[in-house]
Amino acid sequence: MAAPTLDTAGPSTAVPPAYLDATRDNASLRAFLHGLPGVDQVGAEARVATLATRSIKTTAKAWAIDTAIGLIDLTTLEGSDTPGKVASLCAKARRPDPSDPSCPPTAAVCVYGDLVPYAVEALEGSGVHIAAVATAFPSGRASREVKIADVQDAVRAGADEIDMVIDRGAFLSGRYSAVFDEIVAVKHACGSAHLKVILETGELATYDNVRRASWLAMLAGGDFIKTSTGKMSPAATLPVTMVMLEAVRDFAEATGRRIGVKPAGGIRTSKDAIKHLVLINETTGPEWLHPDLFRIGASSLLNDLLLQRHKLRTGHYSGPDYVTVD
Question: Known catalytic residue: 66?
Fold first, then answer.
């Protein structure tokens, strides 16, 4: 997926003039974002409830499980993380099921910036991406200089994806240009690394705010929009993910640029993952069922997918010791 060329002077030229006009100052951004169509909360939740009843069986289920594995950002973001834990996680990302070489690797591992060098060493030559959380994750409460330094350190260490958090206080108080400018600056600091912009939707309160924050992040040059840090509840919900998918669909239709979506937090079972795949297929279309355009941020999900995968292959469930405890 081609990333736009951005610098701190302004937005990407990939965005047509009508959208450039919306990014010149806070008043223009406010007018544009508040002019977006409102989200029908009842309708959105009813549609998600209907899609969640779709049944996926046999061959289609096997395909869905392998697809979901290949979309995972296998994540550890604990204060107790160690180089050894990261190395173990990376080994699992490379070969999720050591007994079955046909099992696909995960899309990426996601760690704190100071642990990126250990991930780089463990994943060399694997094709698995390395994502680092940055910009004072998870609160986002730091000066812009500190946030930019955080990003630059992670990129220098070898991260090829950066997961940043927006300043939710600025967004909720209507200082849209401050959020926009910070995303532009972070994208510039990323260099060739892809930027995932975490909205922390659980703090945004309304679906309308989720839609506005999604458009704001895309206008500013984010390569992905991500639901959550995973550090608060609610995290990723199906209705929120649908609102974000609708936003990237509409943005692609308006600009020709495709943006990825990453729900993170609370997606723990194969059923949860498959519901998201159905949602993508019905909202943005199957072209988004690719790690360049969709990721699932998760830690325990992979284990359940592996157990379900083994059940399809053998006809019986394995014991809990079939998968590693992360």
Answer: no
Q: Are 312 and 61 in contact (CB under 8 A)?
A: yes
Please answer whether residues 106 and 128 qualify as being in contact, where contact means their C-beta atoms are separated by less than 8 angstroms: yes
* CATH superfamily of the 20-314 domain: Aldolase class I (3.20.20.70)
* Amino acid type, 325: V
Annotated catalytic, 262?
Answer: yes
Neighbours of 271 (CB within 10 A): 12
- Alpha carbons 191 and 185: distance in angstroms, whole number: 11
Both structure tokens of 215:
């458009």
Question: Can you read off the two tokens belonging to residue 104?
Answer: 């696909």
pLDDT digits (tens, 9 = 90+) for 99-128: 999 999 999 999 999 999 999 999 999 999
pLDDT tops 90 at residue 25: no
Active-site entry in 92, 147, 196, 226: 226
Beta bridge partner(s), residue 109: 74, 130
Question: Would residue 208 show up in a list of annotated catalytic residues for this protein?
Answer: no
Which one of 160, 262, 272, 275 is the catalytic residue?
Answer: 262
**Boundaries of every domain in the chain:** 20-314
Which is the catalytic residue, given 73, 97, 150, 163?
163
pTM given for the model: 0.91
Contact indicator for 111, 83 with CB cutoff of 8 Å: no
